[in-house]
Each structure stands twice: as structure tokens, then as C-alpha cells.
Write a structure and sequence with these properties.
Elements (H helix, E strand, L loop, with lengths): L1 E4 L4 E4 L7 E6 L10 H19 L3 E6 L6 H10 L3 H18 L15 H13 L3 E4 L2 E4 L15 H7 L15 E5 L6 E3 L2 E5 L1 H13 L4 E7 L3 H16 L4 E7 L2 E3 L2 E2 L10 H8 L1 H8 L8 E3 L1 H27 L10 H11 L5 H19 L6 H17 L11 H15 L3 H13 L4
Parallel strand pairs: 3-4, 3-10, 10-11, 12-14
Antiparallel strand pairs: 1-2, 5-6, 6-7, 7-9, 8-9, 12-13
The chain binds one RNA strand of 74 nucleotides through helix 1, helix 5, strand 10, helix 7 and helix 10.
Amino acid sequence: MKLYNSLSNKIEEFVPIVPNEVSMYVCGPTVYNHVHIGNTRPMIVFDTLRRLFEAQGYQVHFVSNYTDVDDKIINKAREEQQEETVIANRYIEAYQAIRDSLNIEKLSATPRVTQTMPEIIAFIGELIDSGYAYLVDGDVYFRVSKVANYGELSGQNIDDLQVGARIEENSKKENPLDFALWKVTDMGIKWSTPWGEGRPGWHTECVVMINKEFNKHTIDIHGGGMDLKFPHHENEIAQSEALYHTSIANYWLHNGMLNQDGEKMSKSLGNVVWAKDFIARLGSNVVRWLMLSAQYRSPLNISDDTIETAKTELNRVFTVLKQVDVKAQREQISGQESFDQEAFDHFIKAMNEDINTPNGFMEIFETMKVLNRELRQQPNDWNRITGLRNAIIKMLTVLGIVYVKPILTAEDTEQFNAWEAARLAKDYQKADEFRQALSAKGLI
RNA sequence: GGUUCCUUAGCCAAGUGGUAAGGCAAUUGACUGCAACUCAGUGAGCACCGGUUCAAAUCCGGUAGGAACCUCCA
């Protein structure tokens, strides 16, 4: 398996820390609102990566967090005159519902900031003790200049960053690039620490959760959206380098952004599409197919055209599978358990090139073509047909797409037979009626 | 101003030195009672200019256009 590592900007052969095991972490949402479809791209991409590993015998330990302490949550809570936990819990539930509806495999753990506070406070304490963090009026900031490789991930150097950095008014920081580990606060949820009451900064939690959930300082894969590269991931690395001399993960993976009709989705443009609405409209299968139609690092544009194309393509895949299953039942073929390993291997090989889903799709289409030919060959080679069918279904499983096999009822079978009989008798009006009935049931 | 990246047929999208995958749409043919499904065929020389090379969409330089990031947006 080859993966593009954002840390080296190169495609590298994936070598796990522990043979046949993969530890991966993806930054989760700040739960202050529903998520939009852009947020579903990392969910789908990294779930697909996980499935790809699992299809090859890896055991995957996959953790993603919930940021349930944040200014945005506090603001939302004030707006609604609710407790912050009510807000957070509401959107955590909503997020989980999205995961379920997108057929995302169950995560190993979904830690929350509020449940990780002792560790976060201890971690910040260590950074202070070791001189990597300093106190100003109860706030704690990370001293960026003390980390030699700061900027490694985003490919920037500290001097360039400083030129571009917006200088905050009345900044208490030694350096504008220094980031907050702890903020003193008088509003919202807060915890008491040796240096004062307040709440943690965003960048610390992920590091602490990784250390805690995996019980080690270096994991295999850390993923997230391209926009998190700087400063969030850069800052995670800085903290980990400071205390543990490791960049947390051997492979850093970043998915490209999602655009709507060529524009970035944003509230100001008024083109935000909520994930729940999008999934309700198109269904999980189409959404996943659409999200995987471009390689994960490329930007992906969502438009009516790309949505229609995804629907049509996926429909073709399901059509041939359905035709196989209907025909097998009508001809009472059973007991075939064959599997076309070669076709499946082609698919895996394509996918192993840095999750090259477009080439994975290509292998599905190629396999479909062979299957369509076989299905129209007389006599049918059911061993071959079943093997191809099962291979395609397994490919879809890696993509997280679910195919439901149609089960013919006695009535269905009768209608098929009647359709055929009417055709033979050249009673086309009657034939069309049966055809339409079967079509309405999605059987042809 | 800095950093990273992109520009491949009407549309989506692979390919990163050896002569352009796949899909959608279109179109021709076969199959069909008609149709759908399906199969077979048709279509680009890779933004532009210049360079390196026996050979470039692929490497280098430049031009034009576009995107993301530069303190908390996946």
C-alpha cells in the first residue's frame, strides 16, 4: 500500500509500526452545529482507507474525537440559553447519525475533550515545566520558537509565517505564532488548574487523545482535511516533538476540499448543503460513490452534473448484479460460492496506489463488462458469473457501498413467466403490463 | 507578501519520461415485438511559450488562469 505523506510530500510505501495492525486518528468535529457535506469527505475517505486495510487482513484501530469545548459551542449555548452540554450532546448525536447513515464502520473510540481533562491539564503542565509553554495572566501559550522543525508539515519557515501573521491587538504573546494551550475564562464551562480557571485550546486535545487512546506517542496515520494542516496539525506536531520527540504519526494524510458548483461552501455565499439533507436526498451509496469519484487529495466539485453521473454509474453497477441474482433465482441456480480473486486483486492493486478510487472504479467497470458478456453467453457459466458477481460486491464493500440482493417472491416469478409467455404469444399489450409491474418493483 | 497545489475530450476523471485508463453525455451498429439493459465502434495529443532528451501530458524555466492555507473552517 502506498500513501502520500504530507510530511514528506512524497508517496511512500506504508509500513505499519506493528505488523498487520494500523493505528489511525482523524480530527473530529467541533460540535456546535450540524455538519455540511464537506465534512463528510474525510469521514468517507478515511473509512474507505480503513476498509481497504481490513480487506487485506489488517486490524485497524481507528479513533476520532469530538471537540465539545469551544467558543462556538459557548456562543451557541448563550444564543439558545442552554447548557453547553446540551448543545454538544445534540450535535454529537447528529454527527453519529450521519456516520451511521453513511455506513461508516464503528470507530474504536470517540473521545471527548470534557472526558479527557485530567490528561490535557497534565500535558499542559508538562509543557510549562519543560519550558515549551509560558504563562501570561493565567493563559498558557506554546513557545513555537523553541521547536526546531516548526513549519515542517506546512512547508513554511517561521520567518515567512511571521510576516504573514495577523498581529492581534494587545497580544500578550511573545511571538504572534505562539498558540494558546489554555485560556482563562469567566464564561462557559471551565476547569481549575494550578495556573487558573479556564478551558483548553484546540490544538492540545488531539495530541493528548492520541497518547491516551493508543497508549503510545507515535501512531501510523493521522488524517484530516487539507485546511487543518496549518496551524492545527503543525501545532500538534510541535507539542509532540516538544515532549516526546515524535511527529505523532508516521503518515500524515490530508483530503482535498469540497466545492459546490466551483465555489467553496460557506455561509456567506449561502451555498451550504447540510449533510443530513444531502444524504436523505441521494442515499448513502450515491453520496459515497460521488465522494470517491475523484482521488481524495484533489479538490472535489459537487454539481448537478456530477451528482447525476454518480447516480447513473452506480445504477449500472447495481443493474448487472440484480440481473445476475434474478436470473439465478429464476433458473434455480444455487450453491455457487465462487469468487474471482483475480478481478478483486486488480481492484485492490489500483486502490493501493494512494487510495486511487478512480482507478478502483475503472476495475469495477471492467469487471462489470466481463460479467455482462458472461450473462449473455449461452450456456451460462454460473461458476464464472458468480465469481465475478461476488468480486464486484466485495469491491463495493471496500467502498462502503451496500448492495441488497433482490429476493424473488412466488408472485415475481409468476410475473416473469407470464411476461415471457405473453411475449411468445405476441400479446405485447399484456407483455408490457408485466414488464412494467416488474420494472416498478426494481427487478428489471 | 509567503507557502502548497492545480489546468487532460461537451462534462467528471486516471496517467508523472516511451507514444493518452475508465465513466457520463453524444453518435453509429448489434440485440429487442418496440424499448430498456447490454455489447461492439466513433471522439482529445494533454492551458500557452521556450528548453532538456533519441523520446515529454509527464522533467526545467517562463506566461496566463484558478484553488487552498498563513491562529482555531474537514
